[in-house]
Write a structure and sequence with these properties.
Blueprint (H helix, E strand, L loop, with lengths): L1 E3 L1 H8 L3 E4 L3 H6 L6 E2 L5 H13 L2 H12 L3 H11 L4 E5 L5 H12 L3 E5 L2 H14 L4 E5 L6 H10 L3 E3 L1 H5 L17 H12 L8 E4 L4 E2 L2 E2 L2 H8 L2 E6 L2 H12 L4 H9 L2 H4 L1 H12 L3 H19 L9 E4 L5 H17 L1
Parallel strand pairs: 1-5, 2-3, 2-4, 4-5, 6-8, 6-11, 7-8, 11-12
Antiparallel strand pairs: 9-10
Helix pairs in contact: 3-4, 7-10, 7-11, 8-17, 12-16, 13-15, 15-16
Length: 343
C-alpha cells in the first residue's frame, strides 16, 4: 500500500481505476469524477457504526464493523479484480483513514497494488480550491440573453481552445428557462468536482475560456475561488443585434410545449409583473413567439444592464458581432485575444 497526496493520486487515477469506499450517500453527495463506489458500509450500516463509536467506544465500533464487513469481503475482492485492469487500484474514503486503508489491505492480500489518498476526499476538496487559486489567463465571455454564448464556447472548444462549460456541467442554462430539456442537476460538490476534472486537463499557461455566470447556476454554486478569479479576469463583452438574439431564443426554445413555456413564464411574475406574464403567455398560446420573446428580452436586458459591472476588470473589452454564427464569432474572439496578448 502506497500513501500519496491528492495531486499524485489523481495523476495515477488517470491510468488506473479509482475506488471510493464511502457509503452510497457520501458518494452521491460528491465524488472524484470517474470513481467507482465499492462501499464498505451501506448508509444504514455506516450510521450504526457511527452511533456505536460515539455512544460506546472505538473498539466496539471496530468490532461491529468487522461483523458487517466479513460476509462482504469476497464480493469486494471480486469487484476489485474486475476493475483493476493494470493490477492497480487507487482507493480513498472520507479522511484517508480506516476505511480506505483496510480496503487497500484486503486488495493487496489478493495480489493487487494500491494507492491510498492521504487525507481522503476531504484533502481532495482542499486540493480543488487550491487549483482555482492558481488559475490564470482566464477569459470571461459576457453577453446579453440570446447571444448564443454557449454555442460560441462549444465552437471555441472545437477550434482547440481550453473551455470550461459551466452550464453544461450544471445541466442548466442559468435563466428561469434554464432547466428545460436538461437532466437533473448534480449536487454542488459534484458540479465543482467536475469543473476541477476539466481544469486538470488544461495547460494553465494558455487561455482558459468561461462564460459569464452568477455565483449560482440553477441550484448549484460556483467554487468561491473560481468566482473570485472570474471577477478579476479579462472580460470580453459581446454585442449582437437584438433581432438576431430574438430569433436565436425562438430557435432554442420554440420546440418546447406551450404548457412547459407557460409554466416557466409564470415563475417570472415577481420580476416582470402579473400583467406582462399574462400578455406573454397569451402570445405563446397564439404561436407569436417572436412577440413573446421581445417582451421578455426587455426584462432580461434591463437585468443584464445592472449586471455588466459585476466583474471587477478595470477595462472590459467590447466586441461587436453581426451574426449568431458560433464558428465565425469564435474565430473573432480568438483573434481578439491574440491581439490583446500581442499588444
Amino acid at each position: 500500500m502506497q500513501k500519496v497526496e491528492a495531486a499524485e493520486f489523481l495523476k495515477e487515477g488517470k491510468q488506473n481505476c479509482i475506488i471510493d469506499v464511502r457509503s452510497p450517500e457520501e458518494y452521491l453527495k460528491g465524488h472524484i469524477p470517474g470513481a467507482v463506489n465499492i462501499p464498505i458500509f451501506d448508509n444504514l450500516e455506516r450510521a450504526k457504526v457511527g452511533t456505536v463509536y460515539k455512544q460506546q467506544s472505538k473498539e466496539d465500533a471496530v468490532t461491529l464493523g468487522l461483523e458487517i464487513v466479513g460476509p462482504k469481503m469476497k464480493s469486494f475482492v471480486q469487484s476489485a479484480k474486475a476493475l483493476a485492469a493494470n493490477g492497480m487500484l487507487c482507493v480513498y474514503c472520507w479522511r484517508g483513514g480506516m476505511r480506505s486503508e483496510k480496503m487497500a489491505w484486503l486488495f493487496e492480500l489478493v495480489g493487487l497494488k494500491t494507492q491510498v489518498m492521504i487525507g481522503g476526499y476531504k484533502a481532495y476538496r482542499n486540493f480543488l480550491h487550491q487549483q482555482f487559486e492558481i488559475l490564470s489567463h482566464l477569459i470571461v465571455v459576457q453577453a446579453p440573453t440570446g447571444s448564443g454564448k454557449t454555442k460560441i464556447l462549444h465552437a471555441l472548444k472545437a477550434a482547440g481552445q481550453q473551455v470550461i462549460d459551466l452550464e453544461g456541467l450544471a445541466n442548466h442554462k442559468g435563466s428561469a428557462f434554464g432547466g428545460l430539456g436538461e437532466e437533473d442537476q448534480p449536487s454542488t460538490q459534484q458540479f465543482q468536482n467536475d469543473i476541477l476534472a476539466d481544469l486538470l486537463a488544461f495547460d494553465l499557461a494558455k487561455p482558459v475560456w468561461i462564460e459569464s455566470e452568477s455565483v449560482t447556476i440553477g441550484r448549484v454554486y460556483l467554487p468561491e475561488k473560481l468566482w473570485q478569479k472570474m471577477n478579476a479576469a479579462t472580460v470580453l463583452v459581446l454585442t449582437i443585434p437584438r433581432e438576431q438574439r430574438v430569433q436565436h431564443i425562438v430557435d432554442q426554445y420554440g420546440a418546447f410545449s406551450i404548457e412547459a413555456l407557460s409554466q416557466k413564464i409564470g415563475q417570472l411574475q415577481q420580476n416582470i409583473g402579473g400583467a406582462n406574464v399574462k400578455d406573454v403567455i397569451a402570445l405563446v398560446e397564439q404561436g407569436k413567439l417572436h412577440d413573446a420573446v421581445d417582451i421578455l428580452l426587455r426584462y432580461y436586458d434591463e437585468s443584464y444592464a445592472h449586471s455588466v459591472s459585476k466583474y471587477k476588470s478595470s477595462s472590459p473589452i467590447s466586441v461587436s458581432l453581426t451574426t449568431t454564427d458560433a464558428n465565425i464569432n469564435a474565430q473573432i474572439l480568438i483573434n481578439k485575444v491574440l491581439e490583446i496578448h500581442h499588444d
